[in-house]
Each structure stands twice: as structure tokens, then as C-alpha cells.
Design brief:
294 residues, alpha+beta, Jelly Rolls, Arc Repressor Mutant, subunit A, 2 domains, 8-stranded antiparallel β-sheet, 11 helices, globular, disordered N terminus
């Protein structure tokens, strides 16, 4: 079976048979719903997922890269990313699934109380110290217990929504403490953060460093210096890596023809896309798609 046809619908989970916009459960519960092959298979989700490892060790993959996880690890997975839970044995933890619509929007009055959820700015992998991890684990466990409440569904829904927002704010604060001091000292890292945000919005259309430098009001050299400081790669390489990643995602988790993938990523000719992809990954688009079969 090809992973391009993998269906993640079995991940749908409704505690106590109640339809909530956020689902909280143990990984061990999920294992009773899916097969080892389903657990191991890579999926591209249309929702957010938090994976909080509470015991054991496991190597998961995020966007085709291995991530070693142990107690204290928290994965923050965003819509569009490709993820595999790895082994169905040797570890357990909490899983929280929710859609972006579940969070308050800027147009809602509650957003005044939530100035910076920063969900998309969080790294894929957070390593938390014991006190921080305990607070996060307790917050998730409380959400799971409250989801089982016999209170009116609308009240349960609202309570879980605010609890999730509080949890995400906690994670934003924890990450900010880890990265904030260094970021505050470095103008280059601040510039790179803005560059990365622009890249997420424009990678399919803006392939040149000059476009991002103009948008940021800086020179190409200063943008490249910022990228080298943050990642050890040039700005040109960062752009190419992001385009290649999206190509991998589409090749592995859609049946879209390669020429349409090429057009969607801003290439005028499929042959140019094929040359670019092989240069970045060492494989042709067809070869990579075949390698994703399982």
C-alpha cells in the first residue's frame, strides 16, 4: 500500500462518545484502535497535534527527519507536516488533537486575554525540565478528565477551549524563556525570524533571496548573515530546503501529478523542478515517491 493513500481518519477519537473540537487521550489508547502498521505509517495531518511523552523512549519522524523522544519531550505538530509516531511499543504519553478553528481568533473579544499564543512559532520538539513538564502533564490530564464531565456539552466545550489556550500560552512562555535571551541580544536572529515567517507565506512564489530582502528592507548579504547565524545555512539554502520539503510532503502524501506539484511550487517547467529536487534530495521526484511506499 502506498503512503500517498494512507488515511488518518482512524485517529479520530471522541471521549465518552461526545463530539468535542479537541480530543485528549493516551497513546496506549490509540494503540488499541489502530494496527502497528497504522501507528508506524507517516501521515500528513489537517489538524494540530501535541504529543507529550511521559514514559519510555521512541524515535518519531517529523517532516522525514528522526526525532528522539523520551520523558519530557513534547512534539508540536502543525497542519501540513508529515509525522510518524514510530513504534507502538516501549513508550506512552498524552496526545492532544485540535483544529485551528478551536482557538480564539483575533476578531473575538477573548483574544484580548490571549495576546500571543505563538503556536506556529513553537519548535517541533520541546525538551522540558521536570517542573515544567509536570505542569504541562497536569494541564493535559485535567483537560482529559474534564472532557468526561457530564456537564452540558457547550459548557464542557468552552472549558476545554480555555484550558487548551492556557496550555499553549504556557508552552509559548517556556519556549520564550529558552530562546528569548539569545534572540533579544541578536538583531540577526530577529531578522531571521521575520524571514522564516515570510518564507512560510511565499515559498511557492518567491524563490530568490532578493525578494525577501526587499520585503524585509535589508540587503541580501545581511539576510544571508542572519540565516547563517540561525541555521548555519545561507538564505538561498534555507529557501531551497523549504521548497524541497513541501515537494516531499506532496509527493509522499498526495496522488497529485508531478507536473502539477511543479506548477504549484512556482516552477515554469517540470524538468526544472526535477533537476532542483534531485539536487536537493539526491532522488528524482518519481524515485522519492516510490521510496515512500510501504
Amino acid at each position: 500500500m502506498s503512503s500517498t493513500r494512507t488515511n488518518a481518519s482512524w485517529l479520530g477519537y471522541q471521549p465518552s462518545g461526545r463530539g468535542l473540537d479537541v480530543e485528549v487521550f493516551h497513546f496506549s489508547d490509540l494503540c488499541r484502535r489502530g494496527t502497528p502498521a497504522q501507528i508506524r505509517a507517516p501521515h500528513r495531518y489537517a489538524f494540530y497535534m501535541l504529543v507529550c511523552v511521559t514514559e519510555g523512549q521512541v524515535i518519531q519522524t517529523v517532516d522525514f527527519l528522526p526525532v528522539g523522544c523520551a520523558s519530557g519531550s513534547l512534539l508540536v505538530l502543525k497542519p501540513g507536516q508529515v509525522h510518524s509516531l514510530g513504534s507502538h511499543e516501549g513508550w506512552d504519553g498524552w496526545m492532544v488533537l485540535f483544529r485551528s478553528e478551536f482557538l480564539p481568533s483575533e476578531a473575538q473579544t477573548t483574544a484580548d486575554l490571549l495576546p500571543a499564543l505563538g503556536l506556529d512559532r513553537l519548535p517541533d520538539h520541546l525538551c522540558l525540565q521536570t517542573p515544567e513538564f509536570q505542569a504541562v502533564e497536569e494541564a493535559i490530564a485535567r483537560m482529559q478528565q474534564d472532557a468526561m464531565s457530564d456537564a452540558p456539552p457547550a459548557d464542557v466545550h468552552a472549558m476545554i477551549r480555555y484550558q487548551l489556550c492556557a496550555l499553549l500560552l504556557r508552552l509559548t512562555i517556556l519556549h520564550g524563556r529558552q530562546a528569548g535571551a539569545e534572540m533579544a541580544r541578536s538583531q540577526g536572529l530577529q531578522r531571521f525570524a521575520k524571514f522564516r515567517s515570510l518564507l512560510e507565506e511565499n515559498y511557492s512564489g518567491w524563490h530568490n533571496v532578493s525578494a525577501y530582502a526587499r520585503a524585509l528592507g535589508c540587503t541580501e548579504k545581511s539576510l544571508t548573515r542572519a540565516a547563517l547565524e540561525a541555521t548555519g545555512k545561507s538564505a538561498k539554502s534555507v529557501i531551497a530546503s523549504r521548497i524541497a520539503l513541501e515537494a516531499k510532503r506532496l509527493l509522499a502524501h498526495s496522488n497529485r501529478p508531478i507536473y502539477l506539484i511543479s506548477e504549484g511550487l512556482g516552477f515554469m517547467e517540470a524538468t526544472n523542478f526535477a533537476k532542483f529536487f534531485k539536487r536537493e534530495t539526491g532522488l528524482t521526484p518519481v524515485g522519492f515517491r516510490r521510496s515512500c511506499e510501504w
